[in-house]
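Issue 218. Parser rejects a valid record. Input:
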Amino acid sequence: MTDPDGLERLWAPYRMAYVREAGTSEGCPFCAMVRGERGDELLVVRADHCFVAMNLFPYNPGHLMVLPHRHVSDLTELTPGESAELTALTQQAIRATREISTPHGFNVGLNLGSAAGGSISAHLHQHVVPRWGGDANFMTVVGRTKTLPQTIEESAHLLRSVWEKVA
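Output the parser choked on:
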């Protein structure tokens, strides 16, 4: 059903618990990964100050995130060590992704605050999204459906397999 604003609505009420909990470090899914309580299958690498994990709701195959261990919401809150490691891991994520899937380009960025599009804006996370010419094909444009030709687990496995090689 199309609303007056012209947008289709996809109702996913099971996500509400996820959204409600995400604002606190206790309920934050990223902090739960830091504590080892969930998401091990999504984890690519853990470093001293930051970690790399697959995005559970990817835009494209290989869509991952680089995150600080600390529950901070803004880039300006990072320590110099966290900031340097976030950048180094982002560079390594790009090299690893190039090694396993030869994308034509990348979208790399932060959504600071919910108004900027951050679904879990309370815990800073930098997106690394591989892009290919034509990855938004007729299914996306006409059918408003994204086709992902690789599972998240397969992407994580491939990235882990080359991570040290591209360091």
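Fixed in the parser; the record now loads. The helical segments are 16-21, 29-34, 80-101, 138-141, 152-162.
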